[in-house]
Write a structure and sequence with these properties.
The protein is of the alpha/beta class and 438 residues long. The chain has 2 domains: 197 residues, Rossmann fold, CATH 3.40.50; 234 residues, 3-Layer(aba) Sandwich (Rossmann fold), CATH 3.40.50. It contains 18 helices and 14 strands. The strands form 2 sheets. It has an 8-stranded mixed sheet, with helices on both faces. It has a 6-stranded parallel sheet with strand order 11-10-9-12-13-14. Helix 5 links the parallel strand 4 and strand 5. Helix 1 packs across helix 3, helix 10 runs parallel beside helix 13 and helix 13 crosses helix 14. The radius of gyration is 24 Å and the shape is elongated. The protein starts with a strand and ends with a strand. The model has no long low-confidence stretch (mean pLDDT 96).
Length: 438
């Protein structure tokens, strides 16, 4: 089977690479010539563990290719995935201009049956719009070519996307009622996962579109819930990690996403929660739980800034803060909506000097905040610092040589926003310590 993936951002690149690993012939399209040239050289525009090997292997085999020629790629593919950006506005509405442009290009080009699949995260009803845009272009041409529209949302975690695609918890496929042909093609495309007994959810398009928002909104709410519990723990002298463990052992709740910290970030949760809330308001229904989760997340970030300022005795101006971790989570270079970026910018506004280190996100963060000093490792960041702040829980931050840190820091202070360290261990090393919810 030949498929086309339009958009080589995070979702599109991972989708195309992983389908080619299944043995499918894949053409990935992007308008950015420099990105296509980068990929053809085997260089990745994003950091995702294992992705470079899969891309290189399948380019060599001839199953995966990259192009800026969208027309040719559309001609070639039986299934066309739309995986372009869907940026969010301040009010939570989703900008669909890139989706519309792709849909219209498809309508201007197709002359044989295709299945048009939305992979980008889009508001409910977007597939209807895609169908309309394609049909408008066909009507202008006087063309009667038949096509199907489907929704196949992605559930990829940055830093673990390859495993999530190859061994997913589920695959959701939404089509028009009675469109057995589209369903058969999509099931054939995902046949390797059927052999692994992956659960499949076959449903209507609106339900499929809503399922992505429902999943991400629920997970974001779990994060905000445990962060609210962390505030109560600090007030009463409790331990949020023990509370989370007690909750997580209940199989109805589960332990995942019950880790107190600086709040959620990245390209999905902030955008998707705002979009879900906006969509509900458009229907005249307040999505109260999600609206509250957004407010809690914003408040939690500010609370983390306040912790650092408190550790600096209320006077950040002129002080040096060592920030460990800039990406929104480990195993990615993504700084979009990263709590670390918010914290750095807030401390900079209050006159603090920032020395920062991250294993993958330094280049992107440096372009965004050129005033901070980017360091080659943890210890260069700690040199002369008045406080050490762990914001992202990269594994290499779990075994910092505290004796060495003590020799090079100006003050022995640690603000551990991921609760990586044991309180007694840090106290025994001579550090003042502030965690989250304990």
């Amino acid at each position: 089977m030949n498929i086309t993936v339009i958009g080589t951002g995070y979702v599109g690149l991972v989708t195309g690479a992983c389908f080619s690993e299944f043995g499918v012939q894949v053409t990935c399209v992007d308008q950015a010539q420099d990105k296509i040239e980068l990929l053809e050289r085997g260089e990745m525009p994003i950091y995702e563990p294992g992705l470079d090997e899969i891309v290189a292997r399948n380019v060599r085999s001839g199953r995966l290719q990259f192009t800026i020629d969208g027309a040719e790629a559309i001609d070639r593919g039986l299934v066309i995935f739309i995986a372009v950006g869907t940026p969010s506005s301040e009010d939570g509405s989703t900008d669909l201009q890139f989706v519309e442009a792709v849909a219209r290009e498809i309508g201007q080009r197709i002359d044989s049956y295709k299945v048009i699949v939305t992979k980008s995260t889009v508001p409910v009803g977007t597939s209807d719009k895609i169908r309309g845009w394609i049909q408008e272009e066909l009507d202008l041409r006087g063309d009667k070519t038949r096509f199907s529209v489907a929704s196949n949302p992605e559930f990829l975690r940055e830093g673990a996307a390859i495993g999530d695609f190859m061994r997913p918890d589920r695959v959701v496929i939404g089509t028009d009622e009675g469109d057995d042909h589209a369903i058969a093609i999509m099931k054939d495309l995902y046949r390797p996962l059927y052999l692994n007994e992956t659960p499949f959810v076959e449903t209507d398009i609106h339900t499929a579109e809503l399922s992505k928002y429902a999943a991400n909104a629920f997970l974001a709410t779990k994060i905000s819930f445990i962060n609210e519990i962390s505030v109560l723990c600090e007030r009463v002298g409790g331990d949020v990690q023990a509370v989370a463990r007690a909750m997580g052992l209940d199989r109805r709740i589960g332990k995942k996403f019950l880790h107190a910290g600086p709040g959620f970030g990245g390209s999905c949760f902030p955008k998707d929660t705002r979009s879900a809330a906006f969509f509900a308001r458009e229907l005249g229904q307040e999505f109260s739980i999600v609206e509250a989760s957004i407010r809690v997340n914003e408040r939690q970030r500010m609370r983390m800034v306040d912790k650092v300022i408190f550790a600096l005795e209320g006077e950040p101006d002129g002080k040096t803060v060592a920030i460990l971790g800039l990406s929104f989570k480990p195993e990615t270079d993504d700084i979009r909506e990263s709590p670390a970026i918010f914290i750095v910018q807030s401390l900079r506004e209050r006159g603090a000097n920032i020395r920062a280190y991250d294993p993958a996100a330094m280049a992107a963060a440096g372009r965004l905040i050129p005033e901070m000093v980017l360091c080659k490792d943890v210890y260069e960041a700690l040199d002369g610092a008045d406080v050490m702040v762990i914001v992202t829980e990269w594994n290499e931050f779990r075994m910092i040589d505290l004796a060495r840190a003590k020799e090079i820091m100006s003050e022995m202070r640690m603000v551990d926003l991921r609760n990586v360290y044991d309180v007694e261990q840090i106290a025994a090393a001579g550090f003042e310590y502030w965690g989250v919810g304990r």
